[in-house]
């Protein structure tokens, strides 16, 4: 494919110049990209509403989040801590014999391929978190557009490339390709050095296997969805039952449930008594799903859940298809006794992408920690609702082994864009256990290089003694090895 070669070669040509740019230049370019997106908000949001069916309020909020994320990474670049610079001074009296001068730091990995997501047309798409973190690390980015919003992808890429190049970044820093075959071909291209993906487990696994099967395998950072179990104690329900019901319905129904952090299973006491409150809170206006294919998949998954013996409806919800084949939905909330839940993992334990959740009604004395460890392998989130009198230590420890984020007395949707945030988890939540939100996301797109006895004039700027980028340097002076371990009593 001539086009694929041309795009890859352009990105590869841009990579050295981009890597050598001072942090201030890259940071200003990220801010310029954020500004440009907001300047074109009316245009971009209108296109997104037409292509995705998401509401204007949701899309404007997501676009703002995207801009904030870019600005967060601008500060991350200037701070420089992500470079992890370490300098070991030459030491003739080193404890194991003379030590050379050794300096190491993180460097850009090279051209990154980002598969845009369908359910977040801004925040996980052309200029979203994967792109932002890869650019911040100093890498050119090639975005494979999502077929659910091709016009938005093209317009965002046009605005983004112009903003970045106008701020001094090289031509080819941000490029767009379209098509499934083209995406696979680019993933296999030898000039691409890493890839990221947000989407389904099936497609993510296929792409991860392709990346691993290359003659020279590359890192593939896939975020593949999650059930996001919620556990509520009897005391929590007694203390905050109406609030719990309202929060559950909002988390399940928001954006028609098309969020990777939607709570799909809620474990709560069998005598919770919240049916009426949940049904009332779930009585929402219908919302269009992203596209007919997703709507059809949701209908199939919902029907499979409701067909299981012992499942009852708390909030019936609805699915309607219009003349254009678009699906319109309201939240469905079902309930099932724990004993009826256990025999049906295929129908009830997997992710159903859309506004449905299952209340698993558990008898008094149920050990939630044992349930979590026996039923779940890897999740993006685990939520715990409790009161001050509840001992949930074992449950929290189990949750930390199974998820990338453990949250309390809240709902997993609405991922905060903050430095400490983690949006990832053990397989199958992600392919790598990394994060695609928060400043640690930049670590996916760098690799460490050590320089031994290197002349000062050939060292990368962050490793030089004069430290022209003014980044943190962890320095091990000569002589310290003789005191290693002395502070341990």
From TrEMBL:
Xref: SUPFAM superfamilies: ALDH-like
Organism, scientific name: Glycomyces albidus
GO molecular function, one term: oxidoreductase activity
Family matches, as Gene3D superfamilies: Aldehyde Dehydrogenase, Chain A, domain 1
Domain of life according to the entry: Bacteria
Pfam families for this protein: Aldedh (PF00171)
Aldehyde dehydrogenase domain sequence ranges: 2-418
Protein name: Aldehyde dehydrogenase family protein
Record keywords, A-Z: Oxidoreductase
